[in-house]
Amino acid sequence: MKIAIIGAGNMGGAIARGLCKGTVVKPEEICVSNPSAGKLDALKADYPALNVTTDNRQAASEADLVVLAVKPWLIRDVIREVAPKPRQILVSVAAGISFAQLEEYAGCAEMSMFRLIPNTAISLLQSTTLLASHHATKEQEQLMLHIFNEMGLAVLLPEEKMAAATAMTSCGIAYALKYVQAVMQAGVELGIYPKDGMKMVAQSMKGAAELILQNDTHPAVEIDKVCTPGGLTVKGINTLEAEGFTNALIQAVKNSCR
Ligand SMILES: NC(=O)c1ccc[n+]([C@@H]2O[C@H](COP(=O)([O-])OP(=O)(O)OC[C@H]3O[C@@H](n4cnc5c(N)ncnc54)[C@H](OP(=O)(O)O)[C@@H]3O)[C@@H](O)[C@H]2O)c1
Predict the structure, then answer these.
(1) CATH number given to 172-257
(2) Where exactly are the structural domains of the chain?
(3) Which of 12, 71, 92, 153 is placed for a possible disulfide with 7 were both Cys, Cβ 3.0 to 4.6 Å?
């Protein structure tokens, strides 16, 4: 299967790297296009078999799957430029661009389309990748889930749930990093050097995530295990609540969803 990735920025580059590390497609089956050469050179240096070009049409012409990884305001012009064919699957990474808009720009009503929202951890095969499908067959949906499950966890959702899930998972990665940064800052005040603190806190966060993912437990169950009555952790947990931690995150997710 041949894949074209249009745009080699944060997302396009991360998807290309993730695909190259996976087993579903080979680097030589991937072609990445970008107007400037620097990002393409960096990709080529990491994966010499990967194809790169500054010509979007050339990248898309032979592809079975065309991934649009440009900024949302460029999507219309880029779709018109590459003129996707009905035999191709069109995949848009652009946040906030609906299937109705994609269909209008492509001028092709029955085309198989996916909206795809990974997060930046896709380059490490650790993304939560949200997928919504439009006029796609069950086989095409399974293929997309297969490709992106190799890069973490892929979840197929109705289009109307994409905005909420994007706020939770794609914006959410920044919230998680903000937690790491804040705890590092506390550590500095308590005498822990940032470079040491960063690894410690990141591993704690990874461990917390693994407890939930591997045990399939609710976070409250894992929190309860740490909160000995009269102990130190519950004092910190109660401080978080008193300072509005839960409410701040709820408001952050809701604002990122608007
Ligand atoms: N970053 C995230 O966490 C995230 C998460 C989910 C979805 N998204 C979506 O992903 C898309 C890309 O975001 P990004 O963060 O990857 O942006 P980005 O880093 O700015 O990358 C966009 C890339 O598109 C290239 N480009 C500009 N005009 C182009 C054209 N006409 N044809 C082909 N490529 C062109 C740019 O090249 P030059 O720099 O050389 O101009 C740049 O490399 C957006 O639609 C965004 O909504 C991002």
Answers:
(1) 1.10.3730.10
(2) 3-157, 172-257
(3) 12
Helix H segments across the chain? 10-21, 37-46, 56-61, 75-82, 99-106, 138-149, 162-169, 172-189, 194-215, 219-226, 232-242, 245-257
Residues with CB under 6 A from ligand 1: 6-12, 33-36, 39, 56, 69-72, 74, 78, 93-95, 117, 119-120, 170
Ligand 1: distance of its center to the CA of 220 in Å? 38
Pocket test for ligand 1, best of 66, 70, 102 (most atoms within 8 A of CB): 70
* Interval 48-100: pLDDT, tens: 999 999 999 999 999 999 999 999 999 999 999 999 999 999 999 998 899 99
Q: How many A from CA of 26 to the centre of ligand 1?
A: 23
Per CATH, the number for 3-157 is 3.40.50.720
| Average pLDDT score over the chain | 95
Sheet holding 89-92, edge to edge: 51-53, 30-33, 3-6, 65-68, 89-92, 113-117, 127-134, 152-156
Measured in Å, residue 63 CA sits from the centre of ligand 1 at 20
Angle at 222 between CA 221 and CA 226, to 5 degrees: 115
Report how far apart, in Å, the C-alpha atoms of 70 and of each of 12, 13, 62, 89, 218 are. 8, 11, 20, 17, 37
| Whole-structure pTM value | 0.90
pLDDT in tens, 15-58: 999 999 888 899 999 999 999 999 999 999 999 999 999 999 99
